[in-house]
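Appendix C reproduces, verbatim, an entry submitted by the partner laboratory led by Prof. M.T., so that reviewers can inspect both the input and the predicted structure.
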Amino acid sequence: MTKRLAELEKETAKATLWDEPERAKDVLREKNKLESTLQTWSGIDRELNDLDVLFELAREAEDEQTLEEVKEGLGHLSSTVRSEEIRRMLGREEDRLNAILTIHAGAGGTEAQDWAEILLRMYLRWAEKRSYRTQILDFQPGEEAGIKSVTVEMEGEYAFGYARAESGIHRLVRISPFDAAARRHTSFASVFVYPEVGDEIVIEIDEKDLRIDTYRSSGKGGQHVNKTDSAVRITHLPTGIVVQCQNERSQHKNKAMALKVLRSRIYEMKLQEQSAKMDELHKTKKDIAWGSQIRSYVLHPYKMIKDHRTNLEVGNTQKILDGDLDELIEAYLISAAQPAS
């Protein structure tokens, strides 16, 4: 890594660097990334050495209080190292991008729509814990309760890299609050995550390939604009991708945001094609039902959340539903980074 950084420093020192602007940006981006990584690991190394010295002094003096401080310091350091290892796994260019997350209720009416809204709350709380800025771009309320679908923008470092671990079908088992007989119900909702495409990534979209419809906004983010046809729905005819936005007051702003989401969806599709995962993605999208779930949330007759990709089980279901998802996400990222056997 230090050798590569030295090479990049020589590159940036050349007077001809900006003769090729795009290449210059790539060189500077890689240099900044390596400098940041080296700075972080140097800090970890210094902290470990300081704790080692402190431990020896405390051990010789039989200072229990200081030994406890060393233990706490090692715990914090271990957490920092784990976080940095996870970030190293997020090595794809798109992992650093913001995320666009969509939730769709599965079959089952009010029960499934309520489950979709529970997931929305979970992800908004998770984003808040990570200091990500969120914005609801589109919200389709359920007929009695919950939501039919929602699209959320998450803005923050590595938002897509982390959030992509949540793409798939999520299954809930519980006593339904909508069933007068208090019977156990199983509900499904789909979650899909796309990288938000920035200006540095060019995605060509031909206006002739778009069908644009307008309609009245409704639901969260749209109450204040539902007197006019300000909401926008865009269909990309070549791919069949449909996006919509009703968050902004003006039709023009909603169209711009919908096009932003569309570019992100097309970009993700291209990434999937390049990595030969398109068939897997379509297979995941086919059925929001039995056998296709990535995670089960069981609230009755016992409480347990299980991620079927990693077999990780968590007994504290409320913690997860309150947005404490990092344990599940990191386990998946570590598992996904392992070479296939």
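The chain has two domains: 2-89, 95-341. Additional entries are available on request from the coordinating office.
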